């Protein structure tokens, strides 16, 4: 029960990694503001209530400043303050290459994926600091570490999120508010549903995630658990970091691997 009576906001909590995290925060005693722009927010809040937890749903667009302020205000009014912000909402923006990416597309991807976390930090950090300590966790991506896991717009937005975690951790010196990011690899969520659906239908699940040494994609809970760790006092000395949660994908240059079993005695 690491989050007993803690006030927590999760954005993008209507689906995927955000929903998994909201359920786990609530299961560990947290009081959760379930924020999303879709009705998925209400469904997640309902699931938490069914499991005996405490949650309130709110419809927001994370890239709109007034909406983020509304979510922070709801947390403070409902649960007496704010301890944790998990700024997780994001969009893929599709797989458009450099020359198919128009200004409208890259502007929207940056608005949601980068300005969203910026607004979350800006408005959550002062409220968390009032509690004496707390944490902000952002969802970046392996696409933000190097090329090969997303479009130019998406990858640039996630590289920005990694930098935002580092810079804001520094700017919050003395506040006792930590800021870290998770960098998921391929995870089965709403965003990647077509990939997983296609692989299942075509009997090609063995191809999904095969570029990482675990040779599979992740389930949302595997990402959510790392976000909870970073949000908890277990990570009390982890600050300004971006943690890859990708089965080992980003730990290698592109080489032909020697597989266990072929090389082991
Ligand atoms: N699934 C993956 O393989 C993967 C890999 C790397 C990073 N990520 C990141 O993980 C995060 C969570 O995505 P997911 O994979 O769970 O996908 P998902 O589509 O299942 O969930 C994303 C949620 O964010 C919400 N959202 C999108 N734009 C919003 C906005 N402007 N305001 C409020 N809510 C908004 C969506 O409605 C949705 O409920 C995203 O930041 C994504 O970029 C995912």
Automatic annotation (TrEMBL):
InterPro entries: NAD(P)-bd_dom_sf, SDR_fam
Keywords: Oxidoreductase
Alphabetized GO MF terms: oxidoreductase activity
Name of the protein: NAD(P)-dependent dehydrogenase (Short-subunit alcohol dehydrogenase family)
Any single Pfam family the record assigns to this protein: adh_short_C2
Family to which the UniProt record says this protein belongs: Belongs to the short-chain dehydrogenases/reductases (SDR) family.
Domain of life: Bacteria
Species in which this protein is naturally found: Sphingomonas aurantiaca
